[in-house]
Amino acid sequence: MTTDSPGDIAVEAEDAQGGWSLVAICAGMSVVSVALVIWGGLVGLVAGIPGVVFFGVICLPYIVFRALHPVPVLSIGSDGFIVRQYAVDVGFVAWDEVQGIETDSRGAFSSIMVTLRDPAAFVQRHRLPRRALLRLNAGLKQGHVRITGAGLSLPVGDLVQIMEARRNRALGD
Question: How confident is the model at residue 12 (pLDDT cuts 50, 70, 90)?
Fold first, then answer.
């Protein structure tokens, strides 16, 4: 599924500039980590080196790439949907892999909860590096794909209705 297909629905994040504030935070943490390595003595080395590796080597390039090349956080198509909210999100999910879709509310926060038919088979169909990342997603281990409603440009209830309609149409229900 591509977001360019006719009939696909691309749900953007409400705050398009949020990526650049993450770049600034990550760059700041990288600078702090380097300063700890240089001026922090032994404790600075112990705290600074992991900070440089995490913030400067792993996170900063990824966050800069995502800020330069923004993508819709949720794309809903005729054959499935794509979730791209976080680095360990599931990516593409076909409608035949979905058991159920519902709204989940916790206080003032609401989200879309998609339950997979067979989470182990879903993870297994990905390549090895992606499988390792997907295993970090705690909800996926239980068979749940959570799409956080905060920051989405459409209300969660409307998205659930759209997703259910697309799923029913694809499965012939």
Answer: confident
What is the per-residue DSSP string for 43-91? HHHHHHHHHIIIIIIIIHHHHHHHHHS---SEEE-SSEEEE-SSTT--E
Please give the structure tokens belonging to residue 126.
Answer: 């990905």
Sorted by sequence, the CB contacts under 8 Å of residue 22 that are 6+ apart come out as: 63, 67
Q: Do residues 63 and 27 make contact, with C-beta atoms less than 8 angstroms apart?
A: no
Helices marked H in the chain — which ranges?
18-39, 41-51, 60-68, 119-124, 128-134, 138-141, 156-171
Task: Return the structure tokens found at 92.
Answer: 């593409």
- pLDDT tens readout for residues 51-85: 999 999 988 998 888 888 888 889 999 999 999 88
Q: Of the ranges 26-35, 92-101, 138-147, 163-172, which one carries the lowest mean pLDDT score?
A: 138-147
Closest-CA residue to 9 (of 91, 71, 76, 82): 76
For the entire predicted model, the pTM comes to: 0.77
